[in-house]
Amino acid sequence: MSEETVRVGDERIEVAAVTAARIVPGQRDTRPLVGALAALLLAVLVPTFAVGVGVDFFAVAPVGAVLFLAAPVGLALWLRSDERVLVVETAEATYREPLDADAEARAGRIVEEYG
Questions:
Q1: What percent of the chain has pLDDT over 70?
Q2: Residue 87: enclosing H or E segment and its boundaries?
Q3: Which of 4, 23, 53, 94 is most buried by its number of CB atoms within 10 A?
Q4: Looking at residue 81, what DSSP letter applies?
């Protein structure tokens, strides 16, 4: 970070133009959550439907078990999908940058200096 500009994503912003900076929580990716809930629902419905049409329960129980065990994996992926976002405001615009492990320290310095 140079003394006269602040980098947010691909943008370079003049230091004098920065009015505020903060780190906010971003949105979670909902696809793993939907997949986990669908797997949980199918873990109940598939064996139930199969038994209803005359298939032996022990023939379809492994399918239900695999679907049931896939649900916590999807929930764990959903919980880990949280991202933090650096928000830098100027009089003209608001700039946002999703943060990864490398950008977290730089974002902390920006917020400390301009927040």
A1: 97
A2: strand 84-90
A3: 23
A4: T
Return d(Cα 87, Cα 60) in angstroms, integer. Answer: 51
Determine the residue type at 76.
Answer: A
| 47 token code pair | 């064996």
Residue whose C-alpha is closest to residue 33's, from 79, 65, 82, 84:
79
Given a cut of 70, whether residue 3 has pLDDT beyond it is no
Q: Measured between alpha carbons, how far is residue 77 from residues 17, 34, 44, 86 in Å?
A: 39, 11, 22, 23
d(CA 29, CA 88) in angstroms, rounded, equals 23
Q: How far apart are CA 74 and CA 80, in angstroms?
A: 10
Question: How far apart, in whole angstroms, are the C-alpha atoms of residue 49 and residue 55?
Answer: 9
**Element (DSSP H or E) covering residue 110:** helix 101-114
- Report CA-CA distances (Å) from 51 to 45, 55, 64: 10, 5, 12
pTM greater than 0.70 (yes/no) = no
